[in-house]
Protein backbone atom coordinates (compact mmCIF):
# COMPACT_ATOMS: atom_id res chain seq x y z
CA UNK A 1 0.00 0.00 0.00
CA UNK A 2 1.49 3.36 -0.93
CA UNK A 3 2.13 6.21 1.50
CA UNK A 4 -0.77 8.33 0.25
CA UNK A 5 -3.34 5.60 0.92
CA UNK A 6 -1.83 4.69 4.30
CA UNK A 7 -1.93 8.27 5.56
CA UNK A 8 -5.45 8.77 4.28
CA UNK A 9 -6.83 5.84 6.26
CA UNK A 10 -4.50 5.53 9.23
CA UNK A 11 -7.21 6.46 11.77
CA UNK A 12 -9.66 3.91 10.34
CA UNK A 13 -7.91 0.51 10.48
CA UNK A 14 -10.60 -1.38 8.57
CA UNK A 15 -9.67 0.60 5.49
CA UNK A 16 -6.14 -0.79 5.37
CA UNK A 17 -7.48 -3.65 3.23
CA UNK A 18 -10.33 -1.77 1.59
CA UNK A 19 -8.42 -0.80 -1.52
CA UNK A 20 -5.53 -3.23 -1.38
CA UNK A 21 -5.75 -6.96 -0.82
CA UNK A 22 -9.31 -7.87 0.18
CA UNK A 23 -9.77 -9.43 3.64
CA UNK A 24 -10.56 -13.09 3.91
CA UNK A 25 -14.38 -13.27 3.88
CA UNK A 26 -16.47 -15.97 5.50
CA UNK A 27 -16.20 -19.18 3.54
CA UNK A 28 -18.81 -19.59 0.81
CA UNK A 29 -19.12 -22.27 -1.83
CA UNK A 30 -17.62 -21.25 -5.16
CA UNK A 31 -19.36 -21.72 -8.47
CA UNK A 32 -17.10 -24.63 -9.31
CA UNK A 33 -18.05 -26.45 -6.11
CA UNK A 34 -21.73 -25.93 -6.87
CA UNK A 35 -21.77 -27.25 -10.43
CA UNK A 36 -22.24 -30.82 -9.27
CA UNK A 37 -25.12 -29.68 -7.05
CA UNK A 38 -26.70 -27.96 -10.03
CA UNK A 39 -26.34 -31.10 -12.10
CA UNK A 40 -28.05 -33.07 -9.35
CA UNK A 41 -30.80 -30.43 -9.26
CA UNK A 42 -31.51 -31.10 -12.92
CA UNK A 43 -32.25 -34.67 -12.03
CA UNK A 44 -34.16 -33.76 -8.84
CA UNK A 45 -35.80 -30.39 -9.55
CA UNK A 46 -38.04 -30.49 -6.47
CA UNK A 47 -35.06 -30.52 -4.12
CA UNK A 48 -33.69 -27.04 -4.81
CA UNK A 49 -34.71 -23.40 -4.93
CA UNK A 50 -36.43 -22.30 -8.14
CA UNK A 51 -34.39 -19.06 -8.37
CA UNK A 52 -31.07 -20.80 -8.84
CA UNK A 53 -31.68 -24.29 -10.11
CA UNK A 54 -35.02 -25.27 -11.62
CA UNK A 55 -35.35 -25.31 -15.38
CA UNK A 56 -37.99 -23.03 -16.89
CA UNK A 57 -41.21 -24.66 -17.99
CA UNK A 58 -42.01 -24.69 -21.71
CA UNK A 59 -45.15 -22.59 -21.83
CA UNK A 60 -46.54 -20.14 -24.33
CA UNK A 61 -45.48 -16.53 -24.01
CA UNK A 62 -42.23 -14.96 -22.87
CA UNK A 63 -40.04 -17.47 -21.05
CA UNK A 64 -36.58 -17.38 -19.45
CA UNK A 65 -33.67 -18.95 -21.26
CA UNK A 66 -32.65 -22.44 -20.15
CA UNK A 67 -29.48 -21.43 -18.29
CA UNK A 68 -26.62 -23.86 -17.94
CA UNK A 69 -25.79 -25.42 -14.56
CA UNK A 70 -22.51 -23.48 -14.48
CA UNK A 71 -24.35 -20.16 -14.68
CA UNK A 72 -26.87 -21.17 -12.03
CA UNK A 73 -24.02 -22.33 -9.79
CA UNK A 74 -22.24 -19.01 -10.29
CA UNK A 75 -25.34 -17.16 -9.15
CA UNK A 76 -25.70 -19.37 -6.08
CA UNK A 77 -22.07 -18.75 -5.13
CA UNK A 78 -22.27 -14.94 -5.19
CA UNK A 79 -22.57 -13.26 -1.79
CA UNK A 80 -26.23 -12.44 -1.10
CA UNK A 81 -25.46 -8.76 -0.47
CA UNK A 82 -23.96 -8.38 -3.99
CA UNK A 83 -26.58 -7.33 -6.51
CA UNK A 84 -25.49 -7.06 -10.11
CA UNK A 85 -27.76 -6.01 -12.94
CA UNK A 86 -28.24 -3.95 -16.07
CA UNK A 87 -29.62 -0.59 -17.15
CA UNK A 88 -33.21 -1.43 -18.11
CA UNK A 89 -34.21 -4.78 -19.61
CA UNK A 90 -36.21 -4.41 -22.85
CA UNK A 91 -33.60 -5.61 -25.38
CA UNK A 92 -34.58 -8.22 -28.02
CA UNK A 93 -30.87 -8.93 -28.63
CA UNK A 94 -30.67 -10.72 -25.30
CA UNK A 95 -32.47 -13.74 -26.78
CA UNK A 96 -30.45 -16.82 -25.82
CA UNK A 97 -28.99 -14.94 -22.84
CA UNK A 98 -32.06 -13.85 -20.86
CA UNK A 99 -35.08 -14.65 -23.05
CA UNK A 100 -35.82 -18.11 -24.45
CA UNK A 101 -37.15 -16.75 -27.77
CA UNK A 102 -37.25 -13.44 -29.58
CA UNK A 103 -39.80 -10.78 -28.60
CA UNK A 104 -40.34 -7.14 -29.49
CA UNK A 105 -38.99 -4.29 -27.41
CA UNK A 106 -42.57 -3.33 -26.52
CA UNK A 107 -43.35 -6.85 -25.28
CA UNK A 108 -40.16 -6.98 -23.23
CA UNK A 109 -40.87 -3.56 -21.74
CA UNK A 110 -44.25 -4.77 -20.50
CA UNK A 111 -43.53 -8.42 -19.70
CA UNK A 112 -39.78 -8.83 -19.49
CA UNK A 113 -39.07 -7.86 -15.89
CA UNK A 114 -40.41 -11.06 -14.25
CA UNK A 115 -38.29 -13.13 -16.65
CA UNK A 116 -35.24 -10.90 -16.18
CA UNK A 117 -35.48 -11.26 -12.39
CA UNK A 118 -35.28 -15.06 -12.70
CA UNK A 119 -31.79 -14.87 -14.21
CA UNK A 120 -29.29 -16.39 -11.75
CA UNK A 121 -27.03 -13.29 -11.77
CA UNK A 122 -29.45 -10.40 -12.26
CA UNK A 123 -30.47 -9.30 -8.78
CA UNK A 124 -31.01 -5.60 -9.53
CA UNK A 125 -31.93 -3.38 -12.45
CA UNK A 126 -31.65 0.34 -13.03
CA UNK A 127 -34.98 2.01 -13.85
CA UNK A 128 -33.82 4.74 -16.22
CA UNK A 129 -37.14 5.94 -17.62
CA UNK A 130 -37.70 7.87 -14.39
CA UNK A 131 -34.93 10.24 -15.52
CA UNK A 132 -37.11 11.54 -18.36
CA UNK A 133 -40.32 11.98 -16.40
CA UNK A 134 -41.30 11.31 -12.77
CA UNK A 135 -43.05 8.02 -12.06
CA UNK A 136 -45.94 7.51 -9.65
CA UNK A 137 -46.10 5.26 -6.62
CA UNK A 138 -48.40 2.93 -8.57
CA UNK A 139 -45.79 2.74 -11.39
CA UNK A 140 -43.18 1.63 -8.88
CA UNK A 141 -45.59 -0.76 -7.17
CA UNK A 142 -46.21 -2.54 -10.48
CA UNK A 143 -42.47 -3.10 -10.82
CA UNK A 144 -42.13 -4.35 -7.25
CA UNK A 145 -44.95 -6.86 -7.76
CA UNK A 146 -43.05 -8.52 -10.64
CA UNK A 147 -39.84 -9.50 -8.83
CA UNK A 148 -38.87 -11.89 -6.02
CA UNK A 149 -38.51 -10.50 -2.47
CA UNK A 150 -34.69 -10.46 -2.55
CA UNK A 151 -34.55 -8.35 -5.74
CA UNK A 152 -33.61 -4.65 -5.37
CA UNK A 153 -34.14 -1.74 -7.75
CA UNK A 154 -31.80 1.10 -8.64
CA UNK A 155 -33.73 4.19 -9.78
CA UNK A 156 -32.55 7.37 -11.49
CA UNK A 157 -33.96 10.66 -10.23
CA UNK A 158 -35.84 12.84 -12.75
CA UNK A 159 -33.75 15.33 -14.72
CA UNK A 160 -36.25 17.92 -13.53
CA UNK A 161 -34.29 17.82 -10.27
CA UNK A 162 -30.78 16.80 -11.37
CA UNK A 163 -30.12 19.02 -14.40
CA UNK A 164 -29.01 22.58 -13.74
CA UNK A 165 -30.38 23.67 -17.12
CA UNK A 166 -33.73 23.59 -18.85
CA UNK A 167 -33.01 21.95 -22.19
CA UNK A 168 -34.50 22.08 -25.65
CA UNK A 169 -35.57 18.96 -27.54
CA UNK A 170 -32.08 18.59 -29.03
CA UNK A 171 -30.48 18.62 -25.57
CA UNK A 172 -29.08 22.14 -25.65
CA UNK A 173 -29.27 24.13 -22.43
CA UNK A 174 -31.62 27.09 -22.73
CA UNK A 175 -31.79 28.66 -19.28
CA UNK A 176 -31.15 27.92 -15.60
CA UNK A 177 -33.44 25.32 -14.06
CA UNK A 178 -35.20 26.80 -10.99
CA UNK A 179 -36.04 23.28 -9.77
CA UNK A 180 -32.40 22.14 -9.71
CA UNK A 181 -31.76 20.26 -6.44
CA UNK A 182 -35.09 21.38 -5.00
CA UNK A 183 -35.70 19.51 -1.71
CA UNK A 184 -39.46 19.80 -2.10
CA UNK A 185 -39.52 18.39 -5.63
CA UNK A 186 -36.95 15.70 -4.82
CA UNK A 187 -39.26 14.41 -2.10
CA UNK A 188 -42.54 14.89 -3.95
CA UNK A 189 -41.55 13.72 -7.43
CA UNK A 190 -38.99 11.04 -6.60
CA UNK A 191 -38.20 9.83 -3.09
CA UNK A 192 -41.74 9.62 -1.68
CA UNK A 193 -43.36 7.75 -4.62
CA UNK A 194 -40.37 5.42 -5.04
CA UNK A 195 -40.33 4.60 -1.33
CA UNK A 196 -44.07 4.04 -1.22
CA UNK A 197 -44.21 1.94 -4.39
CA UNK A 198 -41.05 -0.12 -4.13
CA UNK A 199 -40.95 -0.62 -0.37
CA UNK A 200 -38.45 -3.31 0.62
CA UNK A 201 -37.39 -3.82 -3.01
CA UNK A 202 -35.88 -0.33 -3.08
CA UNK A 203 -32.10 -0.55 -3.38
CA UNK A 204 -30.50 2.72 -4.52
CA UNK A 205 -32.07 6.06 -5.43
CA UNK A 206 -29.50 7.70 -7.69
CA UNK A 207 -29.33 11.45 -8.24
CA UNK A 208 -27.24 11.56 -11.42
CA UNK A 209 -26.26 15.22 -11.78
CA UNK A 210 -25.90 16.28 -15.41
CA UNK A 211 -22.78 18.18 -16.49
CA UNK A 212 -22.82 21.65 -15.00
CA UNK A 213 -22.41 24.85 -17.06
CA UNK A 214 -19.04 26.51 -16.71
CA UNK A 215 -20.31 29.39 -14.58
CA UNK A 216 -21.54 26.87 -11.99
CA UNK A 217 -18.34 24.81 -12.10
CA UNK A 218 -16.44 27.96 -11.24
CA UNK A 219 -18.63 28.28 -8.13
CA UNK A 220 -18.83 24.58 -7.33
CA UNK A 221 -18.83 25.02 -3.52
CA UNK A 222 -22.19 26.79 -3.85
CA UNK A 223 -23.64 23.82 -5.73
CA UNK A 224 -22.20 21.38 -3.18
CA UNK A 225 -23.85 23.36 -0.41
CA UNK A 226 -27.12 23.32 -2.34
CA UNK A 227 -26.82 19.56 -2.79
CA UNK A 228 -26.19 19.12 0.92
CA UNK A 229 -29.34 21.05 1.82
CA UNK A 230 -31.42 18.86 -0.47
CA UNK A 231 -29.99 15.62 0.87
CA UNK A 232 -30.43 16.66 4.48
CA UNK A 233 -34.10 17.43 3.84
CA UNK A 234 -34.88 13.94 2.54
CA UNK A 235 -36.42 11.31 4.83
CA UNK A 236 -34.73 8.19 6.09
CA UNK A 237 -35.53 5.24 3.82
CA UNK A 238 -35.69 2.68 6.62
CA UNK A 239 -37.78 0.94 7.89
CA UNK A 240 -39.83 0.80 4.66
CA UNK A 241 -36.67 0.08 2.65
CA UNK A 242 -34.07 -1.42 5.04
CA UNK A 243 -31.55 -1.91 2.21
CA UNK A 244 -32.27 1.47 0.61
CA UNK A 245 -29.60 4.09 0.06
CA UNK A 246 -29.51 7.50 -1.58
CA UNK A 247 -26.53 8.00 -3.90
CA UNK A 248 -25.19 10.89 -5.95
CA UNK A 249 -23.48 10.42 -9.32
CA UNK A 250 -21.72 13.31 -11.08
CA UNK A 251 -20.51 13.89 -14.61
CA UNK A 252 -17.84 16.56 -14.00
CA UNK A 253 -14.39 15.55 -12.70
CA UNK A 254 -14.15 18.86 -10.83
CA UNK A 255 -16.30 17.35 -8.06
CA UNK A 256 -13.35 15.06 -7.22
CA UNK A 257 -10.65 17.75 -7.31
CA UNK A 258 -8.51 17.87 -4.12
CA UNK A 259 -10.09 21.11 -2.90
CA UNK A 260 -13.67 19.98 -3.66
CA UNK A 261 -13.48 16.38 -2.45
CA UNK A 262 -13.71 17.14 1.30
CA UNK A 263 -16.70 19.45 0.73
CA UNK A 264 -18.45 16.86 -1.43
CA UNK A 265 -17.78 14.07 1.06
CA UNK A 266 -19.08 16.18 3.94
CA UNK A 267 -22.31 17.01 2.08
CA UNK A 268 -22.89 13.32 1.38
CA UNK A 269 -22.18 12.20 4.95
CA UNK A 270 -24.32 14.87 6.55
CA UNK A 271 -27.13 14.07 4.11
CA UNK A 272 -26.92 10.32 4.92
CA UNK A 273 -26.08 9.62 1.28
CA UNK A 274 -23.24 7.94 -0.55
CA UNK A 275 -21.33 8.41 -3.79
CA UNK A 276 -22.33 6.49 -6.90
CA UNK A 277 -19.21 5.46 -8.79
CA UNK A 278 -19.75 6.51 -12.40
CA UNK A 279 -17.71 4.56 -14.95
CA UNK A 280 -18.06 7.00 -17.81
CA UNK A 281 -15.75 8.70 -20.29
CA UNK A 282 -16.41 12.06 -18.61
CA UNK A 283 -15.09 10.86 -15.26
CA UNK A 284 -11.65 9.83 -13.95
CA UNK A 285 -10.83 6.11 -13.78
CA UNK A 286 -12.10 3.96 -10.94
CA UNK A 287 -8.84 4.23 -9.02
CA UNK A 288 -9.25 8.01 -8.78
CA UNK A 289 -12.87 7.80 -7.63
CA UNK A 290 -11.89 5.53 -4.75
CA UNK A 291 -10.52 8.56 -2.90
CA UNK A 292 -14.07 9.68 -2.21
CA UNK A 293 -15.21 6.20 -1.19
CA UNK A 294 -12.46 6.13 1.44
CA UNK A 295 -13.88 9.24 3.05
CA UNK A 296 -17.37 7.73 3.15
CA UNK A 297 -16.38 4.36 4.62
CA UNK A 298 -18.13 2.37 6.00
CA UNK A 299 -21.16 2.27 3.79
CA UNK A 300 -22.70 0.57 0.75
CA UNK A 301 -21.22 0.51 -2.72
CA UNK A 302 -23.27 1.91 -5.60
CA UNK A 303 -21.84 1.84 -9.12
CA UNK A 304 -23.14 2.50 -12.62
CA UNK A 305 -20.97 1.39 -15.55
CA UNK A 306 -22.30 3.60 -18.31
CA UNK A 307 -20.11 4.01 -21.39
CA UNK A 308 -16.90 2.61 -22.82
CA UNK A 309 -14.26 5.38 -23.01
CA UNK A 310 -13.43 4.48 -26.61
CA UNK A 311 -16.56 6.40 -27.64
CA UNK A 312 -15.63 9.60 -25.83
CA UNK A 313 -17.79 11.60 -23.39
CA UNK A 314 -20.63 12.13 -25.87
CA UNK A 315 -20.49 8.78 -27.65
CA UNK A 316 -23.81 7.18 -26.74
CA UNK A 317 -25.09 7.37 -30.31
CA UNK A 318 -21.85 5.84 -31.63
CA UNK A 319 -22.01 3.05 -29.05
CA UNK A 320 -25.63 2.32 -29.87
CA UNK A 321 -24.91 2.14 -33.59
CA UNK A 322 -21.93 -0.17 -33.11
CA UNK A 323 -23.23 -2.43 -30.33
CA UNK A 324 -26.87 -2.91 -31.31
CA UNK A 325 -28.54 -5.45 -30.94
CA UNK A 326 -26.39 -5.86 -27.79
CA UNK A 327 -25.89 -9.61 -28.18
CA UNK A 328 -22.10 -9.86 -27.76
CA UNK A 329 -19.07 -8.16 -26.23
CA UNK A 330 -17.28 -5.79 -28.61
CA UNK A 331 -14.76 -4.00 -26.39
CA UNK A 332 -13.88 -6.13 -23.35
CA UNK A 333 -12.36 -4.42 -20.32
CA UNK A 334 -10.69 -7.25 -18.35
CA UNK A 335 -8.58 -4.94 -16.19
CA UNK A 336 -11.62 -2.93 -15.12
CA UNK A 337 -13.49 -6.16 -14.38
CA UNK A 338 -10.66 -7.28 -12.11
CA UNK A 339 -10.44 -3.92 -10.35
CA UNK A 340 -14.19 -3.64 -9.85
CA UNK A 341 -14.45 -7.24 -8.63
CA UNK A 342 -11.82 -6.60 -5.94
CA UNK A 343 -13.72 -3.53 -4.80
CA UNK A 344 -17.04 -5.39 -4.70
CA UNK A 345 -15.57 -8.30 -2.79
CA UNK A 346 -14.06 -5.95 -0.22
CA UNK A 347 -17.33 -4.15 0.43
CA UNK A 348 -19.32 -7.38 0.51
CA UNK A 349 -16.91 -9.10 2.89
CA UNK A 350 -17.36 -6.22 5.33
CA UNK A 351 -21.12 -6.79 5.28
CA UNK A 352 -21.95 -3.80 3.05
CA UNK A 353 -24.62 -3.93 0.35
CA UNK A 354 -23.39 -3.68 -3.24
CA UNK A 355 -25.45 -2.39 -6.18
CA UNK A 356 -23.92 -2.41 -9.67
CA UNK A 357 -25.77 -1.62 -12.90
CA UNK A 358 -24.03 -2.14 -16.24
CA UNK A 359 -25.17 -0.61 -19.52
CA UNK A 360 -25.05 -2.25 -22.93
CA UNK A 361 -22.86 0.71 -23.87
CA UNK A 362 -20.12 -0.41 -21.48
CA UNK A 363 -18.82 -3.33 -23.56
CA UNK A 364 -21.62 -4.21 -25.96
CA UNK A 365 -23.81 -6.67 -24.02
CA UNK A 366 -24.74 -5.99 -20.40
CA UNK A 367 -25.74 -9.56 -19.37
CA UNK A 368 -22.39 -10.89 -20.61
CA UNK A 369 -20.58 -8.06 -18.80
CA UNK A 370 -22.41 -9.06 -15.61
CA UNK A 371 -21.42 -12.69 -16.12
CA UNK A 372 -17.78 -11.76 -16.60
CA UNK A 373 -17.82 -9.59 -13.47
CA UNK A 374 -19.53 -12.32 -11.43
CA UNK A 375 -16.89 -14.81 -12.52
CA UNK A 376 -14.18 -12.44 -11.30
CA UNK A 377 -15.93 -11.99 -7.95
CA UNK A 378 -16.32 -15.76 -7.54
CA UNK A 379 -12.62 -16.28 -8.21
CA UNK A 380 -11.79 -14.04 -5.23
CA UNK A 381 -13.72 -16.19 -2.78
CA UNK A 382 -11.66 -18.68 -0.77
CA UNK A 383 -12.22 -22.36 -1.56
CA UNK A 384 -14.78 -24.03 0.62
TrEMBL record:
Which InterPro entries does this entry report, sorted A to Z? DUF72 (IPR002763), UPF0759_sf (IPR036520)
Transmembrane segments annotated in the record for this chain? none
Q: What is this protein called?
A: DUF72 domain-containing protein
Taxonomically, the superkingdom here is Bacteria
Residues covered by region (Disordered) = 1-62
- One family from Pfam that matches here is DUF72
